[in-house]
Amino acid sequence: MTSQHRIEEQLTEEVIASFARTPDPRLKELMEALTRHLHAFIRETRLTEAEWTRAIEFLTAVGHITDEKRQEFILLSDVLGASMQTIAVNNEAYENATEATVFGPFFVEESPEVGLGGDITGGASGTPCWVEGTVRDTAGDPVPGARIEVWEADEDGFYDVQYTDSRVAGRGHLFSGENGEFSFWGTTPTPYPIPHDGPVGALLDAVGRSPVRAAHLHFMVSAPGLRTLVTHVFVEGDPQLEIGDSVFGVKESLVKRFEEQPAGAPAPDGRALGDKPWARSRFDIVLAPAQ
């Protein structure tokens, strides 16, 4: 072992030892592991002081652009695959339960309740789309009263919170019926880029990666005694599925058919759509037991 190697090892050990009196054992474990891995990264890459300074500037910029409507740290976690890895660790496959995927930065609390068969669009642009399905547990029993949060971007690729007029559109919640059934009107999802006018976008440019997400519709489903599910429905046939999703969120089981319906085709609930074409999709949800 060279003297330089010993100096580096000793520093790592000294920092780890500084957490010895941490009263919370889990916090102690996390800080010790973080220190080991962070120091190992610095040593492996022989990080320069200029690179360290640039990294601090980058993280500072991520903090500065983050506000109550834009979470650049979540975007950073997403594009590094850290969000999906955390989901994989915390949502181990359980029998036939629906797979989880990334939460994303655009969920908003207190979305409007739309009711079964209701409309989440709120005037958002896009092709009308009827979405229906059931919520069941892994034994196949229906889950009545499950809270189903749904949110999506409009056909221009923007969520309501990305506009400056305080609109509420493309989001809502409803509760599953007596037999676990649910249905609502939304819009057919389309691919869109994650916000790439900030530091995360600059990072993607620097490494030659696309910021575009595969077309998807967000779901968060919760019910007493069952694991809360955060997931998406992806659109079968979307070319972006082959190109790649910028946040690594696609799972084959979540890719569903969105069947295009011609103008004039009767809607499932009798809604008058005039001369507009529309689409329909089915997504049956299975919730795992709570851990």
CATH architecture of the largest domain: Sandwich
User: How many helices in DSSP terms?
Assistant: 7
The percent range for strand residues is: 15-25%
Count of beta strands: 13
Structural class designation: alpha/beta
Roughly how much helix do the residues carry, as a percent range? 25-40%
CATH superfamily of the largest domain: Aromatic compound dioxygenase
Distance between the termini: 46 Å
Instruction: Spell out the helices and strands N to C.
Output: HHHHHEEEEEEHEEEHEEEE
Uncertain regions: pLDDT < 50 for 5+ in a row? none
Name of the level-1 CATH class of the largest domain: Mainly Beta
Q: What's the Cα radius of gyration?
A: 23 Å
Largest sheet: 6 strands, mixed
Instruction: Report the CATH topology name of the largest domain.
Output: Protocatechuate 3,4-Dioxygenase, subunit A
Mean pLDDT: 95
How many structural domains can be distinguished in the coordinates? 2
**What characteristic shape results from the CA principal axes?**
globular
Fold blueprint:
Blueprint: H1 3-17, H2 25-45, H3 49-65, H4 72-79, H5 82-90, E1 118-119, E2 128-137, E3 147-151, E4 171-175, E5 181-187, E6 192-193, H6 199-206, E7 212-213, E8 216-222, E9 229-235, H7 240-243, E10 255-256, E11 258-261, E12 278-282, E13 285-287
Parallel strand pairs: 1-5, 2-12, 2-13, 9-10
Antiparallel strand pairs: 2-5, 3-4, 3-8, 6-7, 8-9, 11-12
Structure report:
The structure is a single chain. The protein is α/β, with parallel strands linked by helices and 291 residues long. It folds into 2 domains: 3-47; 77-287, Sandwich (Protocatechuate 3,4-Dioxygenase, subunit A), CATH 2.60.130. It is built from 7 helices and 13 strands. It has helices at residues 3-17, 25-45, 49-65, 72-79, 82-90, 199-206, 240-243, and strands at residues 118-119, 128-137, 147-151, 171-175, 181-187, 192-193, 212-213, 216-222, 229-235, 255-256, 258-261, 278-282, 285-287. The strands form 3 sheets. Strands 1, 2, 5, 11, 12 and 13 form a 6-stranded mixed beta sheet that branches. It has a 5-stranded mixed beta sheet with strand order 4-3-8-9-10, with no helix packed on it. The protein has a two-stranded antiparallel sheet with strand order 6-7. Helix 1 (3-17) packs antiparallel against helix 2 (25-45). The protein is globular and about 80 Å long. One of its GO terms (biological process) is catechol-containing compound metabolic process. Residues 131-159 form the Intradiol ring-cleavage dioxygenases domain. GO terms for molecular function: catechol 1,2-dioxygenase activity; ferric iron binding. It holds the Pfam family Dioxygenase_N.
